[in-house]
Write a structure and sequence with these properties.
CATH topology of the largest domain: Naphthalene 1,2-dioxygenase Alpha Subunit, Chain A, domain 1
Radius of gyration: 24 Å
Oligomer: single chain
CATH class of the largest domain: Alpha Beta
Number of helices: 12
CATH architecture of the largest domain: Alpha-Beta Complex
Number of domains: 2
Largest sheet: 7 strands, antiparallel
Strand order of the largest sheet: 2-11-10-5-4-3-6
């Protein structure tokens, strides 16, 4: 590994071994141009204040200045395909009911009856109208007040002013975004150049699994564990044989404040290994983790592990992508992960993984982690129905009913760290969290933007 060098420019140190770009340059099927870019900027080395993860006051500030002001993913468009379909998005103490009110219209109403405050909807479903289960106050799908029992007893209620309060709604890439601030910037402005740097159409992917679980840590603690590959060497040592963990490419731009990216090459060995595995050993390792011990495909003469494994993925995806689509080696194999501020983590290429992290009500020491697995489907055929959410209890295992396979093992290992991390943050006598200049730069990039939103004089 490259040792720290006081003469080296800050943030310039890198691990030994081939960079992501050097790996991609040798691929059989070249990646799209968006993956041949790199844009790291050194963002400083200051500690992140511990109170951001533990303080009730900080959490309350996030509710007021972040969650009630920012664009955030509420659901997938496919979750509410028909007029009258609803789902619920809860964030901290707020609740929104998302409803398809017309074939091409999605609305988000504050999920509260204007009579005495009962939540209108608790679970995804289908309704003709939004009706309170307590006293029957009813609104249509456009939020207009329709009726109540004993109307004679409410002469003071003006139906024209009894409209359900709404949040802003927009869509991108098959996802429904909401914003509770009526004066917010447009979603397109908020996302910046992210859509052009994410060249995959999630409109043509369907949700095969949606699993959520309570975790005993702050939502940022959980999310940040998935924004770097630095932890792999200790937390996930079984991945080192065929994952270039310390050679991950981290992409941040100070001018692109609300998204960042990392690319971790697969079917290449970790620089942490003491010896160099053969190409056949790389193949056997990855297939063995995926399909069980003994799974193997022999390499042809001159063929690389990346070339063979990418070919197998392309074969597997035949019929599930548009005719004429070219799937590069990197899109087929690599961990291409984006972060969209504040809490959405979509993966690029043909990986199925998408994460969302949310605070658990008003508790800064608890959060909800969601894993949404997307898969492409034949655009010439009917759209499959999306999977319903599976809510795991806090003591349930990630393998319970999920069919996550290898990922379940990875999540188990991560879950062992996160409550311990939160416990330590509450016990520490150190005022700040110390981050690496390069491998943890996405966390710093996120906190810079978070600080802007919570600072009264910020630019959020």
């Amino acid at each position: 590994m490259t040792a720290a060098n006081t003469q080296m420019e800050l943030g310039a140190a890198r691990s030994d071994g081939p960079s992501v770009q050097e790996v991609l340059a040798l691929d059989v099927v070249a990646p799209p141009p968006e993956l041949r870019e790199g844009y790291y900027e050194y963002l400083g080395s200051e500690d992140i204040p511990v109170e951001r993860y533990t303080s009730q006051a900080w959490h309350d500030l996030e509710v007021e200045r972040l969650w009630r002001k920012v664009w955030q993913v509420a659901c997938g468009s496919e979750d509410i395909p028909n007029v009258g379909d609803t789902t619920v998005y809860d964030i901290a103490e707020d609740s929104l009911v998302i409803v398809r009110s017309a074939p091409n219209q999605i609305r988000a109403f504050h999920n509260v009856c204007l009579h005495r405050g009962t939540t209108l909807v608790e679970e995804p479903g289908h309704v003709e109208r939004l009706r309170c289960p307590f006293h029957g106050f009813t609104w249509d799908l456009d939020g207009r007040f329709v009726s109540m029992p004993c109307r004679w007893d409410f002469p003071h209620v003006d139906a024209e002013r009894f409209h359900l309060p709404e949040a802003k709604v927009d869509t991108w890439g098959g996802w429904v975004f909401v914003n509770m601030d009526s004066g917010c910037m447009p979603l397109s402005e908020f996302l910046g150049r992210f859509p052009e740097k994410f060249p995959w159409d999630h409109d043509h992917f369907t949700k095969q699994a949606h699993v959520s679980r309570l975790i005993a840590c702050n939502w940022k603690v959980a999310m940040e564990a998935f924004l770097e590959s630095f932890h792999v060497v200790v937390t996930h040592p079984q991945l080192l044989m065929a994952m270039g963990d310390a050679n991950t490419q981290y992409d941040v731009l100070s001018g692109e404040r609300r998204w960042n990216r990392m690319i971790t090459a697969q079917a290449v060995p970790s620089p942490h290994l003491s010896g160099e595995p053969t190409q056949q050993e790389l193949v056997d390792n990855l297939l063995g983790m995926q399909f069980g011990p003994g799974a193997s495909v022999a390499l042809a003469e001159g063929q690389t592990a990346r070339g063979l494994l990418a070919m197998l993925v392309r074969t597997q995806l035949q019929g599930a992508v548009a005719e004429g689509s070219v799937i590069s080696d990197s899109e087929a194999l690599d961990a291409i992960q984006y972060h969209v501020f504040p809490n959405f983590v979509p993966w690029g290429g043909y990986s199925r993984i998408n994460y969302r992290f949310r605070p658990d009500g008003s508790d800064p020491n608890s959060c909800i982690m969601e894993v949404m697995m997307l898969s492409p489907f034949d655009p010439a055929g009917p759209r499959p129905s999306p999977a319903a959410e599976l809510r795991l209890a806090p003591d349930q295992d990630w393998g319970d009913g999920t069919n996550f396979g290898l990922l379940a093992d990875v999540f188990r290992q991560d879950m062992a760290n996160l409550p311990r991390l939160q416990k330590g943050l509450r016990a520490t006598r150190k005022a700040g969290v110390t981050l690496g200049d390069y491998q943890e730069v996405r966390i710093r990039h996120f906190h810079r933007e978070l600080g802007r939103w919570l600072d009264p004089d910020g630019e959020g």
